[in-house]
Amino acid sequence: MTTLRRLALAVLQQPDPTGKAAAARALPLTGEIGANERIDEPPGLPGRPARPRLVPPAGLVQRAVGTPEGRAALLHALAHIEFNAIDLACDIVWRFHAMPVAFYRQWLNIAREEALHFELLREHLRGLGHDYGDFDAHDGLWEMARLALVPRTLEARGLDAAPPIRDKLARVGDARGAEILSIILRDEVGHVAVGNHWYRALCAERGLDPVATYADLARVHGAPRLRGPFNLEARRAAGFAPEELQALEG
């Protein structure tokens, strides 16, 4: 029997965007997890399509969202984030062994929801005459430390960014794009909450202070500096501690 962790690894290895999203959407939440199995990391992770071309963030062309091309580029950038998020959730499932059952089921569900977000954005992008791969993209998401920095920095930044992007799309008459951003924001609050829960659980298990440890990891791994405005309501709902929110406000 193929375990759930190995199914997640197979999704991660899949290079085709259509196949990766479909396989992630089909991930089961019940079955043999294989939690205690140590899996050697295979070469070539993550599976990537030939396009989009990956460039440094500074190499991305900035386009005005009020133009059709600019709106398509924005939606493409969001789709690329969700495409990476599928991989990150699946990577957490196979990479961490001997975790509780709830850990694996929650991250499998996150992978399924990230795949839905990718499909919604890609479908909307196609309606604008483009497809995933038509614009350059960057690979910064994949490089971050998993349980500390991906949910608590990168995805949490999504909580801050989603409302203004949603409003910007609404202002240029893209009601469907704004609707998709509302769906993503709703789900991402839950994703960040899962990340916060397990990050704190591991810190407690190892006798580490979660706030100080996060700062150390952010410095070591070169995490992006947090800049406002911050969606404090969403961050609070996602489980950030009062002292963390106060630090952001300061």
Question: What do these coordinates show?
Answer:
With 250 residues, the protein is mostly helical. It folds into 2 domains: 1-35 and 45-142; 144-250, no CATH class. It contains 9 helices and no strands. The protein has helices at residues 4-13, 17-25, 68-95, 101-127, 146-171, 175-206, 210-220, 232-237, 242-249.
Arithmetic mean pLDDT: 93
SSE ordering: HHHHHHHHH
The level of helicity is 55-70%
- In oligomeric terms, what are we looking at? single chain
Work out the count of structural domains. Answer: 2
Number of β-strand runs: 0
What's the total helix number? 9
| DSSP strand content | under 5%
Which stretches of 5+ consecutive residues score pLDDT under 50? none
The end-to-end span amounts to 52 Å
Structural class: mainly alpha
How would a textbook summarize the main sheet?
none
Backbone shape: globular
User: For the CA atoms, what is the radius of gyration?
Assistant: 18 Å
Blueprint (SSEs and pairs):
Blueprint: H1 4-13, H2 17-25, H3 68-95, H4 101-127, H5 146-171, H6 175-206, H7 210-220, H8 232-237, H9 242-249
Helix pairs in contact: 1-2, 1-3, 2-4, 3-4, 3-5, 4-6, 5-6
Supply the key terms.
globular; 250 residues; 0% strand
Question: How is this structure best summarized?
Answer:
The chain is mainly α.
